[in-house]
Amino acid sequence: MSDDDNEYMMTVRLDNFVMQQDSKVLADILQDAVEDADEDYEFDYDDDDDGMADEADDVENQYYKAKSLKEDNAEGALKAFRTIVNDQSEKGEWGFKALKQMTKMNYLHLNRPEEALKTYRELLSYTKSNVTRNYAEKSINNILDYVGGEGKHAAISPQVPLDTLEEFYEATRIACDEAKNERLSTKSNLKLAKLWLDRKEYDRLQPLSDEWILRQLHDACMPAAGTSSEDQTKGSLLLELYAIEIQMYSDLKESRKLKEIYSASMKVKNAIPHPRIMGVIRECGGKMWMMEKAWDKASTDLFESFRQYDESGSPQRIQVLKYLVLTYMLMGSEINPFDSQETKPYRNDPQITAMTSLVSAYQARDVQAAERILKANRATITSDPFIRQFIDELLKSLRTQYIIDLIKPYTRMELEYLSKVLNVTKEEAEALVVGLVLDGRIKGKIDQVNGLLILDRFGAAERDRYKALDHLASSLQTLSNKLISENVVRRGQYEMGVIG
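and the corresponding structure tokens:
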């Protein structure tokens, strides 16, 4: 190969390398543009100052070059971002963006929460006057989302000690107080309360003093004299607060407080909450009604919860759908919950197929099939403690329905046979039959000596009619005797001159 050919090949390789680097930088620019579009920020520039414009272009290039190093050379990227911050004579846009990237890298990718806290505190110092309030708020909210294990980065958010996480919120509180930013302070407190709820730190959420965070949030969310949009914003924040409280009281099984919060949340009208928030409130309400065996109310709330979760794309919709299916079976409904337009797409979902099979077994009154399904699908059905506490009641309901169907052609049946068919003890079978007799759902009596259920199947209607006639005759006889007795007394009094 000639020298010219070698030079040509080296030129091609160099051009390809440059193109690859430029493509990587371009991808970073596009990604950053998408992220910043969500945050809707504004910065002030002086168009007449060409020197500042050139400097801004240079810093912008540095920023995107630093960002292109994130995947392959994280330490190099951090140093490059730090250089941008240190080289700026005044705090501004690119320093803020660099600190935001450093915080994200340290926390999410390098698992250095202490270092992330340092850069976060430094970033907060920019929010007073160096970036717009709206952009600062949205950036801080995004950071607090992944710190609290929420948002689009929740899956890669590391496990960090609670004390360290609380320092992020404390730093935010101090910055909000200095900037007199009540709106951001309220949102930060809501995220902190949600963090405590997720960690089941209920003591920190309990009303112990004036510093109680839920009390502060209630005060901040109270409607005040202002525009309707302000009231709407506060109404939405109030529902977020109710969602936190209703989950806490549901977990603590404080039914009175749970019902109070549920009732209060249903009265909030001037609000446009996120569908996930209403999904939480309706789910807790549905579970509350299930505990009270108010199946109609439970089915209404759980269906609405499923619909809201589905709209928000929350995976909790699957669990709520299981609760809804369970409610339909417990209320003895013949309606298949998967026939509705909203639930039909989930009929064949791997997490739901066991429930669809259970519904089929229930509607077929097949006790053995239902028990097999429950045993074979512990992971998707009975692993949930809330569902597990209703399984015995579900099987009891299914067995009683099975007994009613089974005894129709018979006048008597051995309790021993019934226990074998139901796969329960003789005592349990007898208890089920006694319950049905006492409830009037079957006509008959128990022969405990011979272990028989004796059914009053044929002639029962006639006997009931004769009993009614006998009762009527007895009542008439009693009335007749009373009238005769009163007449005798009155006649005696007349003869004795007591009455004229």
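(Above: one complete record from the training split.) Residues 17-21, 37-49 have pLDDT under 50 and may be disordered.
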